[in-house]
Design a protein that fits this description.
By secondary structure, the chain is mainly alpha-helical. It contains 7 helices and 4 strands. 49% of the residues lie in helices and 8% in strands.
Length: 194
């Protein structure tokens, strides 16, 4: 009996250590070493849990709306009568609040896709100028941040279908101040390759 209890205890310790290690490797704090002046300013205390086949749960004590609202790109609410799929509310600034990050990323993907299809906006500069209400200096920083990471000229036409996964990743990184788990963006990688 003691042999089985000892084995169970060792297995539980291994599981706890593996979960803790996974948690710590998936945790990335704001203000990475490069270009820290390009990221939003705020206080970050963020834990990211990324379990296979499960949505990401983020426990936050932060001033970053994109994280608190599970809306990584700070997409605005559409209308009261026609909310985004997965939308559970609207904050005081008009940003949608989602039940999961997956729904927030979905709304962002649909927004960016509509820029290309409906409004024929296919440059980094055009996307950010339509997407953000920031002042010119902040918008220029955002444009430069994305252009550098996508390795394109801000005025250069991009293929939205192919660039969408990277745009979602880098825009969420800029808006949240942390890199969200790769598993959230996997569906868009698949769509881009179809």
């Amino acid at each position: 009996m003691l042999k089985y209890i000892g084995s169970i205890f060792i297995i539980l310790l291994a599981v706890c250590f593996t979960t803790y290690s996974g948690l710590m490797t998936s945790l990335e704090h704001a203000h990475p070493a490069e270009n820290t002046d390009e990221l939003p300013i705020g206080t970050y205390e963020v834990w990211i849990y990324d379990y296979p086949m499960a949505d990401v749960q983020i426990l936050v004590s932060s001033q970053v709306l994109a994280i608190k609202n599970r809306n990584p790109l700070n997409v605005k609410s559409m209308s009261v009568n026609e909310p985004w799929k997965g939308q559970i509310g609207t904050d005081s600034q008009g940003h949608a609040i989602f039940s999961t990050f997956s729904y927030g990323i979905r709304a962002a993907a649909l927004t960016l896709r509509s820029y290309a299809k409906k409004y024929n906006i296919n440059t980094i500069e055009g996307i950010i100028n339509r997407f953000t209400v920031a002042d010119k200096l902040q918008a220029d920083k955002y444009i430069l941040f994305l252009a550098n990471r996508l390795d394109v000229n801000p005025h250069e036409r991009i293929d939205m279908r192919k660039c969408l996964p990277l745009l979602l990743r880098y825009m969420s990184y800029y808006e949240c101040g942390i890199k969200l788990p790769e598993s959230l963006f996997a569906p868009y990688d698949i769509l881009a390759e179809m």
